[in-house]
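Minutes, project check-in
Item: structure for the 224-residue chain
Input as provided by the requester:
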Amino acid sequence: MPRTDRVDLANHLYHVINRANGRLQIFNKKEDYQLFESLLTEAKELTDMRILAYCIMPNHWHLILSPRKDGDLSIFMHWLSTTHTRRVHVATKTIGAGHLYQGRYKSFLVEDDNYLLALIKYVERNPVRAKLVRVCEDWQWGSAWRRISGSTKQKKLLDPSPTPFPHGYLRWVNTPDKEDDLVEIRNAVNRGVPYGGERWVDQMIALHHLESTVRAQGRPRKNN
């Protein structure tokens, strides 16, 4: 299967994912999660990246990002991934023991409006779907907890969503995802294609020359 073409343009929205090598657990204690969050803060300061949402799970993480300048997504992710890998190997005395991540990070374009909101809910509800907590804001290692319980300093990590949240954020985010949203988001991730409405997806494919990749992997189901 060919690699998904890398798109790295300013003022686009990206869903970014990476998993531990072999899906092994790499976040085992609070210090592991705190290290990654501190690196998120440093990477944000380095590139002035907009972080709209995130969730750190025991063996993977999700980020929703919007770079301000062309090329900043690659700079942000390269620094974050390599620095995290190096710090973990130093802390665990496993330098030279192999890869921390299963490969390069995956990034997917996301349409604004209801698609972005569905994705933010999907990311922030990860710990609930995994039955790690009962409600999103109880998972300390994600943006839902930070929005509700974080200090003023901690909340500065997050940038406002270009599409405002529905009234009553907590009730909204703790309402189960729509099944159609789950299917479409997972299709986009599994197939490595943009997540959005059919017309917008076609525009992104044409604009960023992704057609060969999409043809090879197959189109996901999309709604207007």
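Outcome recorded: The longest strand covers residues 13-19.
No further action items on this chain.
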